[in-house]
Amino acid sequence: MRIAVFVAGQGRQVGMLSPDGLRVTPFDVPAEVARRGALPLVEAASRGEPLPALASSSFAVADVRLEAPLPLPRRNLWCVGRNYHAHAQELAGSVFKNNAADTMEWPIVFSKVPECVVGPADTVQLPAAAISQQIDYEAELAVVIGMGGKNISREAAMSHVYGYTIVNDVTARDVQMRHQQWDMGKS
Predict the structure, then answer these.
(1) Domain 77-186 belongs to what architecture?
(2) In the predicted model, what is the mean pLDDT of residues 36-59?
(3) Where exactly are the structural domains of the chain?
(4) pLDDT, position 32
């Protein structure tokens, strides 16, 4: 199942994509619920509730404006840096080159502020040239956590995952390296 947040006609809607990805059928939810994107669906699933009913009509994806699936996150987005070996090797000579910590055992965790979320057709607001001269971007996999927890076992971890999406991770590398803190350069 693929969920999409989109604008068609009168405001934001949340719906399900057809298997071929060419059409989207909105869920039958009030506008106030749809305003929050897919977040109400994630919250309902964490309570064991089913998906809302689908509307009787659908839209061609080519005729709608796709938006971020979670346009209004409740809090910061938590991210893991140097999250695969080849990327960690690539960064070894630049960002945090003096950090000898084993990132497999001690992952680098940082956050992005909710206000940095934009949709696929939205303009990314970059810092002024006086602040950053080195903007970088990477495609990343985002894991949407549907059910909270603490000290979750490896075996139970996937039961807490609601779904996946993709993220354009935009970074002001020079800002990030000035203080060796990732949050400012990543938000």
Answers:
(1) Alpha-Beta Complex (3.90)
(2) 95
(3) 3-67, 77-186
(4) 93
